[in-house]
């Protein structure tokens, strides 16, 4: 006999995610679930995105980490509401964690919630958080072969942010090979090359996101 | 009622890992389980380690990936036996996967098996594979704050390889802060700064590993 443990866990997660999605829609809040490896520049990308969008939209951030609250502190230092979730070992966020974080936010005054998932290219892929879009970040130092090795996350992403492009010459990163293998997995997701800490390329990425937010307002 | 799913899964894994450990000991084979994020340079580090140790030891590699066999092909191109495990979605290797891979190797003629785990700083931490040592790689572009965010892997590692140190000046990596936070989690693990693709620092790391292998021969 084989017991499938994954299906009941996912089913419970998805039911709560559907409730969250209805609640976000009712308040016209766009929710972005950001997936990436450790150290790919998720927090830097969020800070650059906030800079680009804060004049038009009211933004809050939900930070998911195994441990520590350093990311939430960086966001709060910019005058943006941030809720830290510590998963205490779990390798991904689940909708029940998001529900608790959202209960601490005033949805009525928000236009955008950015969820920074746990640094992991695998586990967060399967979990619906009630978001409007999952977007992934890959950083140049990770290498252009990552779509071959972690296909799932490239398949679920509605956009791919390629971060740290200012270090392209330092690493042996083949942009053409990268784009080709992303296209095989995901024919439609736009690829945004950026250098988050320097603000390079952020405008195009932020405008894509802004367009998505305006659609639901 | 709450059902703890993790314990029975781990218990079954650990029982098989104990059998594997006995089998490795009987054949005097040292098994290294290598943990790291995607793109931290696991395969490059393995290639550099093979270069440093192949005159003294007979080596084989077990490659763990969600998908693809590009890493095993790189190893085989160096004339080293390599078995590719595709987890098909699972975020870590388990002892049952290692058993199947080991059945394809001739333990009698081997001194060292290097297991390249799935790129993930979280999930592989909990799974005993029957190895003699877990070692982790962090790469400089990932940032010096990673011990705070992924403490578990730094706690289980018997050594920490800090890769891509040739890019230290490109990234804002604080070596002192990194060492201090590793020390808080793990007072004894040596930290080996290397640049795997350039061969820098590999000698010290390889000598530490060689010493461990000689102990069991």
Task: Give the gist of this structure.
Chain A is built from 8 helices and 7 strands; from the N terminus they run αβαβαβαββααβαβα. The first copy, chain A, is α/β, with parallel strands linked by helices and 217 residues long.
Description:
The structure is a homodimer of 217-residue chains. With 217 residues, the first copy, chain A, is α/β, with parallel strands linked by helices. The first copy, chain A, is 38% helix and 18% strand. Chain A has eight helices and seven strands. In chain A, strands 3-2-4-1-5-6-7 form a seven-stranded parallel beta sheet, with helices on both faces. The longest helix of chain A is centred in the first third of the chain and has 21 residues, at 6-26. The relative contact order of chain A is 0.19. The A-B interface holds A 5, 9, 37-40, 65-68, 70, 89, 91, 118-123, 139, 141-143, 145-146, 148-152, 164, 167, 170-171 and B 5, 37-40, 65-68, 70, 89, 91, 118-123, 139, 141-143, 145-146, 148-152, 164, 167, 170-171.
**Count of extended strands of chain A:** 7
The CA-CA distance between the termini of chain A, in Å, is 50 Å
Helix run count of chain A: 8
Poorly predicted runs of 5 or more residues of chain A: none
The secondary-structure element order of chain A is HEHEHEHEEHHEHEH
What proportion of the residues of chain A form beta strands (DSSP E)?
15-25%
Helical proportion of chain A? 25-40%
Largest protein interface? A-B, 34 and 33 residues
**Spatial arrangement of strands, main beta sheet of chain A:** 3-2-4-1-5-6-7
* Global structural class of chain A: alpha/beta
Largest sheet of chain A: 7 strands, parallel
CA radius of gyration of chain A is 17 Å
Morphology of chain A: globular
Oligomeric state of the chains in view = homodimer
What does the average pLDDT of chain A come to? 95
